[in-house]
Amino acid sequence: MEKINLSDDKKFYTPQEIGEILGVENVTILNWIKKGAVSAMRTLGGHYRITREDLIRFLKQNSFEVVEPETGYKVLVVEDDPDVRDFEIQAIEILKTRSVEIKVDIATDGFTAGKKFMEFKPNVVVLDLMLPGLNGFEICEMIKKNKETNFIKILAVTGYDTKENREKILQTGADDYLAKPFTLRDFQEKLCALLKIEEKAEKVEDSSPQN
User: Fold this and answer.
1) C-beta separation of 103 from 75 below 8 A
2) At which of 45, 67, 89 does a domain end?
3) CA gap 172, 193 in Å, rounded
């Protein structure tokens, strides 16, 4: 089954655009429209436009596999302390109950994190600065210097809250900083800001993971 990648967010397509997607001539698409094989509407100027829904329906009816863009957000939690990691994941899971679509993956060391940046392609990395293997400073620099990953936002997390650590990680490229121990609301507010989503932080009693 041939795959057709509709990774854009277009709502309407011209016959020419569909021809380019399928690798056929524009006249072929026009013939399909005239025969009713593809549903289309006409503009006031007489031009054909095909909705995304009609295009997908046509493709599936003709045994194409449609690959659409992923929706929602992806967060990679890089943390070797299980208590802190569980607390961060709990905070994310609470956001998900508030209609925020978030996929979560985890890494417990620098080597695994490096692989997952490329495979998972998260929107945000929650990055512990003190890790087995590569430390957080090296990981942050690696993310920001690679053109394939430099779009990723980084929330640096550390139990060693010193002025030197804070300045160093921000200079290395981290987008925000959070010192342990932190509350669930602190974490959610930082994450929401980096994801650029509506404020949905949980209003709860202050609680924090063990340092």
Assistant:
1) yes
2) 67
3) 20
Tell me which residue has tokens 């929650």: 126
Pairing of β 73-78 and β 124-128? parallel
Residue 202 scores a pLDDT above 70? no
Average pLDDT over residues 68-84: 87
Which amino acid, 92?
I
Residue pair 181/208 in contact (Cβ under 8 Å)? The answer is yes
List the structure tokens of 154.
Answer: 């980084």
Report the 10 Å Cβ neighbour count for 97.
9
Domain containing 63: what range?
3-67
Q: Is 63 exposed, middle or buried (0-12, 13-18, 19+ CB in 10 A)?
A: exposed
Q: Quick check: is 211 in a domain? A: no
Which amino acid belongs to residue 120?
Answer: F
How many residues comprise the chain?
A: 211
User: pLDDT tens digits for 24-66?
Assistant: 999 999 999 999 999 999 999 999 999 999 999 999 999 888 8
- Would you state the structure tokens that stand for residue 14, as one six-digit string? 């011209």
Let me know: does 7 contact 67? Beta carbons within 8 Å: yes
3-state secondary structure of 100: coil
